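Request from the bench team (R.T.):
"We need a structural guess for the complex before ordering more pyridoxal-5'-phosphate. Sequence and SMILES attached. Just send the tokens back."

Command: build protein-pyridoxal-5'-phosphate structure.
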Amino acid sequence: MLNANPVLSQPINDPILDAKGIKLVVKRLDLIHPEISGNKFFKLKYNLEEAKSQGKDTILTFGGAYSNHISATASGAKAENLNAIGIIRGDTTTTLNPTLLEAQSKGMELYFVSREEYRKKGNLEFIENLKEKFGDFFLIPEGGTNKFAIKGTTEILQNQDEEFSHVICSIGTGGTFAGLAASIKPSQKLIGISSLKGEFIHQEIKNLLDKHHISPAGIMEIKSTFHFGGYAKYNEELIDFIWEFYHKTQIVLDPIYTGKLAFAVWEMIKKNEFENGAKILLIHSGGLQGNRGFTERTGIKLPVPVR
Ligand SMILES: *Cc1c(COP(=O)(O)O)cnc(C)c1O
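Reply to R.T.: structure attached below.
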């Protein structure tokens, strides 16, 4: 069983919050574990237990070269004494980036496939071929979202979080949103900020909730206008915001998920989208390991967590 640090809830102080009568608190899932960060901790927890109870000794999963999920799976498998195989999208880079180097150093076996081949990751024949190649394994899908992941993410909110009127999180595959949707109270509103471009996300989340028989007790809303051009796209405004937020709070954000999330919350506050008296819980879903690789790739400096 993975061990969690106690989760800190950090109130944010800013004149704009006082002026608008809003309380904003960041739930620091980024601090939950030194290596298995944020929402990935919750998404992996029951997957690793399930793998063990099925008697599997190897985890296989998929991800991009900078993926938080790959990084967390490598650490989680190691902590649970399981072998890990990472099927990585894109050809082998001559020098591995920090994410992949670290995953490899934790014992994950990396296997690179072309983008075309990677697209087949859902089909049975592709999986069968992988079984011939690697032997039997417990499969975790890309991004880690399955029923075990959602079981884990329903544990993010705790009793003391009932006081919040709004819970706001970032959306990739929606596994985190789904777990929160299953656990919000009737008085609470859940807002998801999509890091992906496109209106498809509304239907995708609906399908996910249907599939897992989740009907939220409170209200839900998905915002699809804060993607900054699409997944992993960014601009100067976002980077500046990440630095400003860091100087104000000492909280590190990433440019893929949590930066866009916090930016969205701030915009919504400025535009009076929250009523006076609102109590907002911002879920910091972690994933800061990618900041080093981002800086290496783009030359743009970002804050990094002190370790
Ligand atoms: C993976 C990830 C997400 C997306 O989570 P989903 O459950 O796929 O929606 C959000 N934030 C961070 C930091 C992540 O690493």
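Two things stood out. The longest helix spans residues 39-53. The mean pLDDT is 96.
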